[in-house]
């Protein structure tokens, strides 16, 4: 890959372009969790010095996507059971709130966009592309936006990028047809409840949707992965005592 062409830049600085490109690679999984970011080669690839790249990495650090240490090394933030759990705990409260408010406040244009994005939804299977993930984001953002609570919309939108990394992790084990059918049904029920102005149903369907989400599956997987070394260690201790 050649150097990035900055000649057509308008308002974007080199640091901003580097931020967008590195961020995309992290979220897409090209730079995997825990991986060291090769700053020299990456800066060369982008056609910039390491100074704007470091500025971009510091910005990504504030978003929790990159870790920087005292030796100037940069690493993609690892996925943890604690962060996965935190994200689900927040979504259990905020997503149903947004859906309930959307049912109460949606306009005709809001409802048209919700229906349009629902129609475009693609099932998420193993290793989804950016376009597939984007269709789900557009659908949920359409619901968030229909709440007409800007603080809520901004909060949920800021959580989405972190959550996508955990969705990818959960999808590594695949999804059954029953999983896909349930998710599809929940999407349709959300559209119907919001269209009918049924806040209670929209709230309960969204809560069920979050409880069975890929994010929730990621919590279960990471918890299981964390428990296995502990179990092996405990078996070793018991064996040593025999």
From TrEMBL:
What molecular function does GO assign, one term? DNA binding
InterPro entries hit by this protein: GntR_C (IPR011711), TF_FadR/GntR_C (IPR008920), Tscrpt_reg_HTH_GntR (IPR000524), WH-like_DNA-bd_sf (IPR036388), WH_DNA-bd_sf (IPR036390)
Q: Which residues form the HTH gntR-type domain?
A: 12-79
Q: Which residues form a coiled coil?
A: none
Q: Which UniProt keywords apply?
A: DNA-binding, Transcription, Transcription regulation
Q: Which domain of life is it from?
A: Bacteria
Tell me the Gene3D superfamilies matching this sequence. GntR ligand-binding domain-like (1.20.120.530), Winged helix-like DNA-binding domain superfamily/Winged helix DNA-binding domain (1.10.10.10)
- What Pfam families does its record include? FCD, GntR
PANTHER family (UniProt xref): GLUCONATE OPERON TRANSCRIPTIONAL REPRESSOR (PTHR43537:SF24), TRANSCRIPTIONAL REGULATOR, GNTR FAMILY (PTHR43537)
Q: What is the name listed in the Swiss-Prot or TrEMBL entry for this protein?
A: GntR family transcriptional regulator
Tell me the organism.
Answer: Kribbella jiaozuonensis
The beginning of the lineage is: Bacteria, Bacillati, Actinomycetota, Actinomycetes, Propionibacteriales
């Amino acid at each position: 890959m050649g150097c990035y062409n900055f000649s057509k830049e308008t308002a974007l600085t080199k640091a901003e372009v580097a931020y967008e490109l590195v961020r995309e690679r992290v979220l897409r999984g090209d730079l995997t969790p825990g991986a060291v970011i090769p700053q020299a080669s990456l800066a060369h690839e982008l056609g910039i010095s390491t100074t704007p790249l470091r500025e971009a990495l510091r910005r990504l650090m504030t978003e929790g996507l990159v870790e920087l240490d005292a030796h100037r090394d940069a690493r993609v933030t690892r996925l943890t059971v604690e962060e996965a759990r935190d994200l689900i705990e927040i979504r259990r409260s905020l997503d149903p709130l947004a859906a309930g408010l959307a049912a109460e406040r949606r306009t005709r244009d809001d409802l048209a966009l919700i229906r349009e994005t629902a129609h475009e939804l693609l099932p998420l299977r193993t290793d989804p592309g950016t376009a597939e993930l984007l269709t789900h984001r557009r659908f949920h953002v359409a619901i968030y936006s229909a709440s007409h609570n800007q603080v809520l919309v901004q909060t949920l939108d800021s959580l989405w990028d972190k959550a996508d990394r955990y969705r990818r992790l959960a999808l590594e084990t695949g999804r059954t047809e029953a999983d896909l059918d349930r998710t599809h049904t929940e999407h349709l029920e959300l559209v119907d409840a919001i269209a009918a102005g049924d806040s209670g149903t929209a709230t309960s369907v969204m809560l069920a949707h979050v409880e069975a989400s890929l994010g929730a599956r990621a919590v279960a997987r990471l918890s299981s992965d964390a428990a296995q070394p502990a179990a092996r260690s405990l078996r070793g201790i018991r064996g040593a005592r025999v």
